[in-house]
Amino acid sequence: MANQIINEIKMQYVLRKKTKFNFIEGDIKWTDNKNFLKYGIASGFVGIISSLVGIGGSVIMNPIMINLELLPEVVVATSSVSSFFSSLVATIQYIFDEKLEWVLLGLFFAGSFGALTGVLILRFLKKNLRVAITFFLTFSLIGSLILLIVTNIISFVEDGVQ
Question: Which of 76, 108, 136, 141 holds its CA 20 to 30 A away from the CA of 7?
C-alpha cells in the first residue's frame, strides 16, 4: 500500500515536470527516496509525540518542515489545512456525542475571523506602504499627545487635591 502511494506521488511529480509546472524554490523534490523517508519518519514521530503529550502537531512539525527547507508560507499553509481537518473531525465527534457547546462554537467561529482581518490589513499595507507608514506615525503621535495630556491632567488634579 505504501509503495503504491510513493509510486503515485513520483508519477505526479514527473508529470508536473514534463508539463513545465511552475515549481517554487521550497518545493519538495519527490524523485529522491530520502525525502519519502524523512517526511514519513517526521510525520510518524510528530503523530506519536503530539498524541502522547496532548499538544497540536504543528508545534512540532512546523520547525521540522522549515528545517527540511520548505518555505515558511508553505509550512503555514500546510499547518492551516491540517488544523482545519483536525478541527472538523473533532467538531463532528462532539456533535455525535451531543457534547457540543453551541455558544462556545459560535464565539470561536467569530473569533477566527481575526486571522482574516489580519491578512486583509497586511495586504492593504503592502499595496499602500506610504499611506500605512503615514497613518501609523500620525496615530502614534496623536496617541502620544493624548497620553501626555491625560497624564498631565491626572498629575495636576492629584497635586491640587493634596
Answer: 76
Q: How many CB atoms are located within 10 Å of the residue 117 CB?
A: 9
- Judge contact between 47 and 62, C-beta under 8 A: no
d(CA 162, CA 154): 12
Pull the grid cell for residue 137.
506615525
- The C-alpha cell that represents 66 in the structure block: 522549515
Q: What grid cell was written down for 101? A: 457547546
pLDDT value of residue 92:
83
Quote the pLDDT of residue 162. Answer: 60
The dihedral of CA 94, 95, 101, 106: what is its sign? positive
Find the farthest-apart pair of alpha carbons in the chain and give their distance in angstroms, rounded: 84
